[in-house]
C-alpha cells in the first residue's frame, strides 16, 4: 500500500491492516544458497542527466515487477529499441528507471540510455526523463541479478542516517561487461 493510500484510511480501518513482516535476511541468504552479497554503498554526488528510453508498465502488487523487469531488458535489446534513441551519449550503459508510481502500485520502468536529445520528438512508446542531480547511495551488484532492493529498503536505509528523497531510483548496467550470469550493475537511491 502506498503512503498516500494509507493516509486516506479511516482510523478504525487502520487496526484491520496486516503489517508487512520484517525481512529475515539470513533466511534470504540461505535461499540463495549462500551466494547473497551486498557491498556497503558509496555516497556519490551525481550531476543531472537525461535518459531516453522505452516505457514499460508494471506493478508492485504480488511482486509482479520482479518477474517482468528482466523481460523488459530482453525486449529492449532483442528488438534493438536502443537504436531509436536520438543523440546517445553513452551507448555502453543501459539505464533502468523506476518512476511514475501510482496509488494502486502501478509504475513505469524505463529502459534506455543517456541522451543529449531529450527535447526531440520521440517514437511511440519512448519517453525522456531527467535524473536529478544530488546525493545518491550507489550499490554495486555482484554476481547474478539477485534483488538487493529488499535489503536496501528493508535493512540498510532504515539503519542509515539518511532518508530517501524525491526522485526515481535507477540502475545502470555496463552492457559490454555483463552477462546473464554476471552483471556489472550499480543501483542508485536518492538521499537527503
Automatic annotation (TrEMBL):
InterPro entries: AraC_E-bd, Cass2, Reg_factor_effector_dom_sf, YobU-like_regulator. Pfam families: Cass2. It comes from the Bacteria. Residues 39-192 form the AraC effector-binding domain. Signal peptide: none annotated. Transmembrane segments: none annotated. This is Transcriptional regulator YdeE. It comes from Paenibacillus xylanexedens.
Amino acid at each position: 500500500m502506498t503512503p498516500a493510500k494509507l493516509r486516506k484510511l479511516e482510523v478504525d480501518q487502520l487496526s484491520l491492516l496486516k503489517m508487512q513482516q520484517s525481512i529475515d535476511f539470513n533466511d534470504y541468504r540461505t535461499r540463495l544458497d549462500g551466494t547473497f552479497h551486498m557491498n556497503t554503498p558509496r555516497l556519490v554526488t551525481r550531476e543531472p542527466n537525461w535518459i531516453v528510453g522505452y516505457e514499460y508498465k508494471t506493478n508492485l502488487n504480488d511482486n509482479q515487477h520482479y518477474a517482468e523487469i528482466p523481460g523488459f531488458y530482453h525486449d529492449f535489446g532483442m528488438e534493438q529499441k536502443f537504436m531509436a534513441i536520438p543523440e546517445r551519449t553513452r551507448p555502453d550503459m543501459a539505464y533502468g528507471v523506476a518512476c511514475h508510481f501510482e496509488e494502486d502500485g502501478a509504475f513505469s520502468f524505463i529502459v534506455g540510455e543517456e541522451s543529449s536529445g531529450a527535447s526531440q520528438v520521440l517514437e511511440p512508446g519512448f519517453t525522456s526523463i531527467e535524473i536529478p542531480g544530488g546525493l545518491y547511495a550507489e550499490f554495486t551488484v555482484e554476481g547474478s541479478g539477485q534483488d538487493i532492493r529488499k535489503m536496501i529498503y528493508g535493512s540498510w536505509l532504515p539503519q542509515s542516517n539518511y532518508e530517501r528523497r524525491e526522485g526515481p531510483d535507477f540502475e545502470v548496467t555496463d552492457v559490454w561487461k555483463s552477462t546473464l550470469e554476471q552483471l556489472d550493475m550499480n543501483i542508485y537511491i536518492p538521499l537527503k
